[in-house]
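Give me C-alpha cells for this 465-residue protein.
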Amino acid sequence: MLLITRRLFCSIAVITATTLSASAQAPTPLTGNWSGNIAATDFIFHIMEPASGPKTATLDIPAQGAQGIPLQFATTSDSVYLRLPQFKAQFAGRRGTNPQQLPGEWQQNGQRFPVTLTRAAEGAVAAPRRPQTPKAPFPYLSTDISFPNAQAGIKLAGTFTVPQGKGPFPAVVLLTGSGPEDRNSTVYGHQPFAVLADYLTRRGIAVLRFDDRGVGKSEGSLVTASAADYATDAAAAMVWLRAQPSIDKKHVGLAGHSEGGTAAIMAATQKAGPDFLVLLAAPGLPGDEMIVQQVLAINRLKTQDAATLAALEKQQRQLLNIIRQNPDNEKAHALLRDLLNPTHSTDPQVVAAVNRNLVQLTSPEYRHILADEPSKTLPLVHCPVLALGGSKDIQVVGTPHLAAIEQGLKAGGNHDVTVRELPGLNHLFQTATTGSVAEYATIEETFSPTALQIIGDWVTQHTRK
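Here you go.
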C-alpha cells in the first residue's frame, strides 16, 4: 500500500524493548485468538503454534480498520514475543499457570503498557471470510526459496511457484507497495499476491514473490530503505529467476503494486532489466502531487465543501514544501512541529502523535516518494508495459496517474503500452462502493477476477515464444 498503510500503523511506531522475567511453567500451545486492551485500544492477535512447522501470528486493530498485520512470533520456554520489527514495537508476554491468559507488556514510545491477553473461546473471533485465498493442494510446484541481493549485502526470502509440465516458462516477480509487506502482501486478512501468483501460475506463468526487507524471513531493514533500494531487490530477484533452468530467460517481468510500481519502473531503466512491466495502481504524477491528490480524494469522501478542501490542500502543500526545502531533519522537524501542533499542546498523546508523524514525514522512504518524478524515469522504459488503475482508487487516483504514465512512456518512444482504468475497483483492485480504506477489510473479494484476467491475458500475449 502507498502512504495510508503507514498512517494506519502510526499508533504503534517506536518502542524500547525489555525482557520479562522467566516462569517455570511448561510451554502451552498458543494457537487461537487473543485479545487485549492497550491504551484504550483493542488489539486482537491471531496465533498459530503448530506442533511442527513455522509459527505465525497476525494482528488486528479494529479501531484503525487494520487486519492481518503480519508479526514475528517467537517463544522461549517461558516467554512469548509478538514483534513488529519494522516499527520496533512488540508484545512481550509470560506463559503462566493459566493457559487462557498471557500477562505481559506492550512496549511503545518509550513507555510500557501492562496488558493481559485473553484467549477467546473457540470460534468467538471468526477470521474474515476470504474465499479467494489459495488453499493446497496446488496444481503446480510451490517452493520457499531465498536469494541474495549482493549490492545490499542481504538475503531475501520468498515463494517460487512453477507450472507443472515442460518448461521453460515465462516468469514474473511481484513487488509490494510501501510499508512492511510480506510475500503475500497480507493486509486486512487479504493476501492479494498469493491470489495473483496462484492465478498466473495456473495459467502457465512462474511467479516469485518475496518478503520485504526486515519482514518475515528476509534480512535487512525498511527503516532506511526507499523505492530505489527496493529496485535493487527486484533486480536481484530477476537475476535469481533467470538462473533457474525452468525459466525462459527472455521472458522475465516485474509486476509492481503502488510504490512497488515505482521500484519496477526504476529497475526497468537499468541494464538487464525486465522484459515486460505490469504496473498496478502505480504513481505517474510527481510524488508531492500524488500525496496532495490522495489527501483530497480521501477528504472528498467526507465533504464536498470547496472552502474546506481548499484549506486542506493549502496545508498539505505547505507541509510538503517544508520537507522538500529542508533536507536537514532537525530543521525540518522544528518547522513541521509548529504546523502539526499549532497550539503547542503539551498533552502527552498529542506530543507522541506529532513525534511519530515527524519521523514518518522525514524518513528516507517518504523523502524519496516526494522526490520521485516519474516523468523523468518513464521515458527510459522501453519494454512492453501494462498499467492498470481503479476508478475508485483514492490512494493513487486512477485517471491522472494513468494519463501521466501513458504520456511518460510514449514520450520515450515506447509504443507497446496498454493503459486501462477499471470501473469500480479500489487501490487493492477490489470491487468497492466508495474506495474508502475502511472498506478494504469488509470486502470479501481480494482481487477482482476481471483484473486478474486482464493481467493474465496480457502477460500470456507478451510472452509467447
